[in-house]
Amino acid sequence: QVQLVESGGRLVQAGGSLRLSCAASGRTFSNYAMGWFRQAPGKERRFVAAITRNGATTYYADSVKGRFTISRDSAKNTVYLQMNSLKPEDTAVYYCNVDPELIATNAGQYHYWGQGTQVTVSS
Length: 123
Hints:
Number of strands: 10
Number of helices: 0
Strand content: over 45%
Radius of gyration: 13 Å
Strand order of the largest sheet: 2-10-9-4-5-6
Order of helices and strands: EEEEEEEEEE
Shape: globular
Structural class: mainly beta
């Protein structure tokens, strides 16, 4: 069974940086694309970033492009999200997920989620 454990979220001031981690277990995740989503209070869960199985290609939501960087360490079954120039609108619970093909941008495609990690950006 897939297990996803996100970490690294905390309170940070606007303009600051954070690095989130997601440790996956239960499969050989070098064969899986990995991605990040976020859910702000009262809003639906939205796609943030994704990385292909071999790490060669990355995808970003327009709202984070140029500020966030996704990376992976397949040997550790871990995906990271480096977040720079944080804004109050980045405040959300951040979740990761995996897919044997490409990460779908529709979060509704996934039925299993970890507990997420809270990122709060103060103005």
